[in-house]
């Protein structure tokens, strides 16, 4: 049977107290609305329509690459009104439509498939996805006749004392027969506590027309809606747990999952060990057998096999195999660190490549540079890449030994197999095989202290 989806994403989300539209708030690195779209697409529903309104352009920009169509809700008059705004999308369609709210990111592909199968097998005109919860506060309640057949949904603010005690809630996710939905929507009004056109009212309308209604229940961990920052953190916690369990099932050791923050797109290979306090973000790949000691942030980067990272920040960069980074290193975007490299404490690398086997062990800045293989950087080397106006490039060839406290004033080229004496300020290219010394010669003034009468 033909199926399509409508996702409601036009609301402002007043309770978030934010300048960002609610549905663009992120859970484990992905916008809530995009979780909903991705799961629907994974459940093989291709034709997806997003109802947008508040912050429409922002929502559109953040969802465009997912190939959805859009309907526009000018004024936010309620969830029922939002679906009415998708009438052009639904017109002349026959089959099933699933309707989802964009502020419930935890729903899974399996539950979406189960909802549709249940709906179609049972030949229902409407099927509601529900959850049984300890604290139903804020949610619409499912009203059943004599504890069986669904009669209607009553919003929290419209509930009687008795109805408030019902702990089966409306997830805001449904499957409808398209024609039945369209005809019932024409009959809703805004005669309720919030003076809104509620989508939930179509259930009672269909019931009164003796249409067959279904309901299926899934755990609250999948249906929880996000209306506030507190609920955002609760959704994040559930998603974090899912992501960490997925990695552990794939053979990654996570010492303390509660304090390990891995975003949804991150990939981690087998036998990598992750200590607490790591934040791994964006499009990051950690290859096998790595050890991430505590407290690093790694974003949009690749870490090669058998590498060790400790208390460092690595952004938009590539780190090779058998390399160690940190503690306290800062690898800034567009850096490429080779294999068997050591980047030690208080080292900053910016937009530079570091060749295989090179050691930059401590207190060094390398910016806009190309460093060869098997080099050794002494403590306190600075690549002086900025003259106040422009940034220029430094090249250091293979097998170079850069003595402690060297300044490399760029643009400058240090050729292969060279030595630079400690304390040098290098302004001219160093030829292959040379030793460069660029500092004043030492002068000893014998007896100077006594002569000046400075002896203590
Ligand atoms: C809604 C349901 C409630 C359910 C809960 C589940 C209604 C009337 N109530 O309540 O039964 O338990 O979700 O989370 O449907 N939206 C629009 N246009 C509007 C209003 C809302 O697009 O005019 C969108 C919002 O962006 C949001 C979704 O619809 O993504 C739900 O709106 P929200 O105001 O959060 O509804 P709830 O009060 O949570
Ligand atoms: Ca909501």
TrEMBL record:
Map out region (N-acetyltransferase) in residue numbers: 251-456
For this entry, list what GO says about its biological process.
cell morphogenesis; cell wall organization; lipid A biosynthetic process; peptidoglycan biosynthetic process; regulation of cell shape; UDP-N-acetylglucosamine biosynthetic process
| Pathway noted in the entry | Nucleotide-sugar biosynthesis; UDP-N-acetyl-alpha-D-glucosamine biosynthesis; UDP-N-acetyl-alpha-D-glucosamine from N-acetyl-alpha-D-glucosamine 1-phosphate: step 1/1; Nucleotide-sugar biosynthesis; UDP-N-acetyl-alpha-D-glucosamine biosynthesis; N-acetyl-alpha-D-glucosamine 1-phosphate from alpha-D-glucosamine 6-phosphate (route II): step 2/2; Bacterial outer membrane biogenesis; LPS lipid A biosynthesis
Binding positions (UDP-N-acetyl-alpha-D-glucosamine): 8-11, 22, 73, 78-79, 140, 155, 170, 227, 332, 350, 365, 376
EC numbers: 2.7.7.23, 2.3.1.157
Q: Where is this region: Pyrophosphorylase?
A: 1-229
Note the HAMAP family from the entry: GlmU (MF_01631)
What the record says about family reads: In the C-terminal section; belongs to the transferase hexapeptide repeat family. In the N-terminal section; belongs to the N-acetylglucosamine-1-phosphate uridyltransferase family.
- Put simply, this protein is called Bifunctional protein GlmU
Organism, scientific name: Clostridium acetireducens DSM 10703
Q: Per UniProt, what is the name of the gene that codes for the protein in this document?
A: glmU
């Amino acid at each position: 049977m033909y199926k399509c989806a409508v996702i409601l994403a036009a609301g402002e989300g007043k309770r978030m107290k934010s300048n960002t539209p609610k549905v663009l708030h992120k859970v484990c690195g992905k916008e809530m609305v995009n979780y909903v779209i991705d799961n629907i697409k994974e459940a093989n529903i291709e034709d997806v329509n997003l109802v947008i309104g508040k912050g429409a352009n922002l929502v559109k920009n953040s969802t465009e690459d997912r190939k959805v169509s859009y309907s526009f809700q000018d004024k936010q008059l309620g969830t029922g009104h939002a679906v009415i705004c998708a009438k052009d999308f639904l017109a002349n369609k026959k089959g099933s439509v699933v309707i989802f709210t964009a502020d419930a990111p935890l729903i899974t592909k399996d539950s979406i498939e189960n909802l549709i199968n249940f709906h179609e097998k049972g030949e229902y005109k409407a099927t509601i996805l529900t959850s049984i919860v300890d604290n139903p506060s804020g949610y619409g309640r499912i009203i059943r006749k004599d504890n069986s057949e669904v009669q209607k949904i009553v919003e929290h603010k419209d509930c009687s004392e008795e109805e408030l005690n019902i702990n089966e809630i409306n997830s805001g996710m449904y499957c409808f027969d398209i024609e039945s939905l369209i005809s019932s929507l024409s009959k809703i009004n805004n005669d309720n506590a919030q003076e809104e056109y509620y989508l939930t009212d179509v259930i009672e309308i269909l019931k009164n027309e003796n249409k067959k209604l279904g309901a299926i229940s899934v755990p609250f961990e999948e249906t929880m809606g996000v209306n506030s920052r507190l609920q955002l953190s609760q959704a994040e916690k559930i998603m974090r747990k899912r992501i960490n369990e997925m990695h552990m099932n794939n053979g990654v050791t996570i010492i303390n999952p509660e304090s390990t923050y891995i975003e949804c797109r991150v990939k981690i290979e087998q036998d990598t060990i992750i200590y607490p306090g790591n934040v791994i973000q964006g499009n990051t790949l950690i290859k096998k057998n790595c050890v991430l000691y505590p407290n690093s942030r790694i974003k949009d980067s690749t870490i090669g096999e058998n590498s060790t990272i400790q208390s460092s920040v690595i952004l938009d960069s590539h780190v090779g195999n058998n390399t160690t980074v940190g503690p306290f290193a800062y690898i800034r975007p567009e850096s490429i660190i080779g294999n068997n490299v050591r980047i030690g404490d208080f080292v900053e690398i910016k937009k530079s490549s570091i060749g295989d086997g090179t050691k930059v062990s401590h207190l060094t800045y390398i910016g806009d540079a190309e460093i060869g293989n098997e080099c050794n950087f002494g403590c306190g080397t600075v690549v002086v890449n900025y003259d106040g106006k422009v940034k220029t490039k430094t090249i250091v060839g293979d097998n170079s030994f850069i003595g402690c406290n060297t300044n490399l004033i760029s643009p400058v080229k240090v050729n292969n197999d060279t030595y630079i004496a400690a304390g040098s300020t290098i302004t001219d290219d160093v030829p292959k095989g040379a030793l460069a010394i660029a500092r004043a010669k030492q002068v000893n003034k014998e007896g100077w202290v006594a002569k000046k009468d400075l002896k203590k």
